[in-house]
Design a protein that fits this description.
Layout: H1 13-35, E1 45-46, E2 49-50, E3 52-54, E4 58-62, E5 67-74, E6 82-87, E7 95-98, E8 104-111, E9 114-121, E10 128-140
């Protein structure tokens, strides 16, 4: 049996998990750097027009609670037509403009589930140029304790 001057280190499960997460983060960062893309998960591109939102999601404390957040929705300057920003929760457009007059909108988000925004030409009610969905997430799923938990009394 030969012994080496350096001891063998075997990683434990926690170190393995940390290394795996770090490796995954580096792979994602590397793929974004290679493609030159830093597109957020809540950005959907259609016909080279993209809607971006900031922040990407809204987080409420408990499941079912309405989350309140001010969103900034932005898009590239669009020329030649009149455009409108729509929401699936509103019957009328949130905002309309002509030519290069606008490229962002500040929206007061209030939802317990999600809200989808659509960019359309003013005269077209059905054709979406781009869309993005904002979802509500929760810190705690329910107020009840798990039935599988330990009970002392």
């Amino acid at each position: 049996m030969s012994t080496s001057p350096h001891p063998t280190i075997r990683p434990g499960p926690i170190l393995t998990c940390v290394l795996g997460i770090t490796l995954a983060a580096l792979l994602v960062q590397n793929s974004r750097a290679e493609t030159g893309s830093d597109v957020a998960p809540s950005t959907i591109t259609t016909n080279v027009i993209e809607l971006r939102t900031h922040p990407l999601a809204c987080v409420a404390l408990h499941k079912g609670q309405v989350c309140y957040q001010t969103l900034t929705i932005s898009w590239p300057f669009l020329e030649g037509n009149s455009y409108c920003l729509h929401s699936n929760l509103h019957k009328t457009p949130l905002v309309c403009w002509k030519n290069n007059m606008r490229n962002s909108y500040s929206h007061d988000y209030a939802s317990a589930t999600s809200e989808t925004f659509y960019l359309r030409r003013e005269e077209s009610e059905m054709s979406n140029l781009a869309e993005v969905t904002i979802s509500t997430s929760w810190v705690y799923r329910t107020n009840r304790r798990s039935s599988s938990g330990w009970r002392l009394f």
